[in-house]
Write a structure and sequence with these properties.
Elements (H helix, E strand, L loop, with lengths): L5 E6 L2 E6 L10 H16 L5 E5 L4 E3 L4 H4 L4 H6 L7 H4 L5 E5 L2 E3 L1 H8 L2 E5 L3 E3 L13 H9 L1 H10 L3 E2 H7 L4 E3 L4 H13 L3 H13 L5 H14 L4 H11 L10
Parallel strand pairs: 2-3, 3-5, 4-6, 5-7, 6-8, 7-10
Antiparallel strand pairs: 1-2, 8-9
The structure holds hexanoyl-coenzyme A.
Length: 257
């Protein structure tokens, strides 16, 4: 499929999705949304693909939702179309999606990165929810995901002042998994994604699903959910293979069954 606002390429079992509106610092408009959802749905369906990476340019992951597209909209337009609720599909992807963030990840860009399963940051990354400066608020989950990632104090300060967080602070605060030199970011993210794509596919989905459950349940229910999924994997061929391969000191060969 050809996209106008994205570059999508398969690097072996890794789907690399590059936001590509450089003239607008990858601002997220309706076309980006539609294309990103289409690309992620194709990725989720393709048995040959095991993990996706979403990235931008070295200057900007995405500088936010497209302010020029939003500026003329009224309440009826926004509420009536449930503006950008379509982004819920990103977090609903069943296979893992890594955000590789260099440069600006602001507003909707920060929110898109946080919808991914984890963030790898280039050392020049800058995260922020500066919507308050436009007299609005985060609208794609930022007010909920940012406090879960960095705690209330930093999230509240960032939302109320619009200040940006650099890569070093983002790692210290738990927003990003790791910081790497910006020039090596995509390569590192694809390598990390390849490692994940090399794991048994059902175990990958189960691990993702249960870590996400930690943000939706109380501890006892979450532990119960984990245990049931863990038990369930003993009904798979790949569990037999994985444990046999360990005992026989060889790599496992997965069937995804
Ligand atoms: C539309 C944008 C844009 C955006 C940048 N551009 N951000 N267009 N929407 N969010 C455009 C600029 O208008 C400009 O186009 C070109 O990209 C380059 O940007 P500059 O500002 O010239 O670059 P620079 O001086 O380097 O400054 C970079 C920047 C700044 C600090 C990132 O662009 C900026 O502050 N952008 C807005 C950040 C923001 O407020 N994001 C939150 C958006 S609200 P021209 O044509 O002039 O050259 C949001 C809500 C989410 O995200 C919820 C939705 C449901």
């Amino acid at each position: 499929t050809a996209y106008e606002t994205l570059l999508v390429e398969n690097r072996g079992p890794v789907t690399l999705i590059t936001l590509n509106r450089p003239q607008a610092l990858n601002a997220l408009n309706s076309q980006v949304l539609a294309e990103l959802i289409a690309a992620l749905e194709a990725f989720d369906k393709d048995d040959a693909q095991g993990c996706a990476v979403i990235t931008g340019s070295e200057k900007a992951f995405a500088a936010g939702a497209d302010i020029k597209e939003m500026s003329g909209q009224g309440f009826a337009d926004m509420y009536g179309s449930n503006f950008f609720a379509g982004y819920d599909r990103v977090a609903a992807t069943r296979k893992p999606v890594i955000a590789a963030v260099a440069g600006y990840a602001l507003g909707g860009g920060c929110e898109l990165a946080m919808m991914c399963d984890f963030i790898l940051a280039g050392d020049n990354a800058k995260f922020g929810q500066p919507e308050i400066k436009l007299a609005v608020t985060p609208g794609m989950g930022g007010s909920q995901r940012l406090p879960r990632a960095v705690g209330k104090a930093k999230a509240m300060e960032m939302c109320l002042t619009g200040r940006l967080m650099d890569a070093e602070e983002a790692e210290r605060s738990g927003l990003v998994a790791r910081v790497v030199p910006a020039a090596e970011l995509v390569e590192d993210a694809v390598r990390t994604a390849s490692t994940i794509a090399g794991m048994a596919p059902l175990a990958v989905k189960a691990n993702k699903e249960m870590v996400n459950a930690a943000y939706e349940t109380n501890l006892q229910m979450g532990i119960q959910f984990e245990r049931r999924l863990f038990h369930g994997l003993f009904g798979t061929e790949d569990q037999k293979e994985g444990m046999a391969a360990f005992v026989e000191k060889r790599p496992g060969k997965w069937t995804g069954k």
